Amino acid sequence: MDTTRLTDVRQSLHRIPELGFEEHKTQAFLLSVIAELPQAHLEVTVWRTGVLVLARGESPARRVAYRADMDGLPVREETGARYASVHDGMMHACGHDVHMTIALGLLSHFAEHRPMDDILFVFQPAEEGPGGALPMLQSDEFKHLRPDAIFALHVQPELPVGQIGLRPGILFANTSELFIDLVGRGGHAAFPHRANDMVVAGAQFISAVQSIVSRNVDPLDSAVITIGRLEAGTKQNIIAERARLEGTMRALSSDTMEQLKHRVESLLEGTAKMFDCTYELDYGANYHQVWNEERLTESFISFVEENALARVERVPTAMTGEDFGYFLREIPGFLFWLGAQSPFGLHHARMLPDQACVDVALKVLVPYFSERVYLQSL
Ligand SMILES: CC(=O)N[C@@H](CCC[C@H](N)C(=O)O)C(=O)O
To answer: What are the positions of the active site (predicted)?
Structure first.
């Protein structure tokens, strides 16, 4: 697949972002592109809204996998790009259009140049939520194709094109979503004493929650709690009966994650007592940390540096989450940041990775898989 075709593929995918497990058009588009490739040694399996493509090797010693996530985010795009989203209120604001394009570029190379080892291409739905990696990993389809090692990348707008970032060990945090409904009693704004105002309860809880990271977590550890969405009330002169708070928690160990959850529950109990209200709490999707296997990561770094395929920066751990962590919990591998140079960060309505990063990724990954560099460490 040449650069023009890859650009066209990326733009087509960018136009049709879909939420987790709703990636029907995206799946159909991927299948149509895959169908154009030489089929002689490809086996295509559909799993829910995902796709698994096995490129059968000539003389396989190992089966390795390359994974790309597929879903978009509920963000109204403001990039002004010619190929902006045609799905109102949805956007590829986390670069999964680029991830899929790179995977298709790699797959097209190995459809035309048969690899020695088996390479499994994993197009995984629902990374942003509710999490496609774990159910895919547990599916019969994946079990049947299970690889010996697995790799992935994630675009990083803060790194320049031509640079990749990674580290052995923990790269991304453990995550837990947070959905809270506070339920009180609504009423007339002029008679607060006859109602139970959930705007005030919600505001109090949000302030209290800020003390968890600063006062309960060991200062030498790291954690994040972000409330990203708050909804309450219906009109300015009606006391709100309900408040809904939606957020996410991040921690570098499962113990710290348990501590965060415990403190959230205590503060909710306190809020319920203080405001004489009730609450419902749901932790939504939880992701396992991304742990890069040391030997595979180090040999990848050496390979990229020795062959001057990209500039490598050893980056600190980030508090981002990725359900790719579930694959890495069971299968050795790594994930790296791919420099994609955009003035706006991940999840921003104006985030637009530079298309040139696709070529860099392929420049690194085609020889990595062709030369079976991973074999040194498996
Ligand atoms: C790379 C990235 O931005 N990943 C997402 C993963 C979402 C996890 C989950 N839905 C949550 O919100 O906790 C991230 O927000 O880090």
So the answer is: 69, 128 (proton acceptor)
